[in-house]
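Q: Sequence in, structure out?
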Amino acid sequence: MSSKTNEERGDTSVRAVPPRLWKGAKALGAVYELNDHCLQVLSALARAEPLRCPLTIVMHQRPLWSALNAEARSRAAQNPVALLDMQFKSEEWWQKALQRSSKRCNQMPPPDECFPGNQASKLARETLMLAWPTARDDQHAACLMFGMSSSVAARVAALTPQHIEQIASRHSRELRPRWEHRPMYWRTLLVAAQGGDDAALREVHLYSLQLIATEVQKI
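A: Exactly. Output:
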């Protein structure tokens, strides 16, 4: 009885399964660009006199933000997770935001402004214009990259350009830096990026994925 393998016998009927390209991979470059824009705005706000940003992550790390140059910013931005959040865990918020009404989404006071008006609208539009096709192509990728619940990912996938413009213009104050209540996360990211420590930077990026995965599982 022959013990030859299919390959040794020249049998090509059994082949390895060809690798599949992850649909979300094509959005990574755009996520990096969005992150770079976010970091650029926060750095500029930190350098302004007087300080124009009420965020704890900026006030407590102002020297690091002020020293963030283009090269370090680019390194920090190459994070697989979007560093901006637009209520992506709250289906209730999105349900109300999509209602055809000029009223705010809820009766609570609007959040403190962390980005100036024009910058907030621009960043919100940029975030939604990236989240929208990502959710359409691969909702699982949208959940990981943007920290979305599955129900919000479905709603974002169904957006229209009119919806995006409406939400970006009316609710840009809801746009927040991700993990704004984790100052040590941001300090570690900035130190690793400015120090040129590739290993430390990879650790931060992996930690970002761990945080997102944990958060998504709890939704």
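Residues 117-137 form the longest helix (21 residues).
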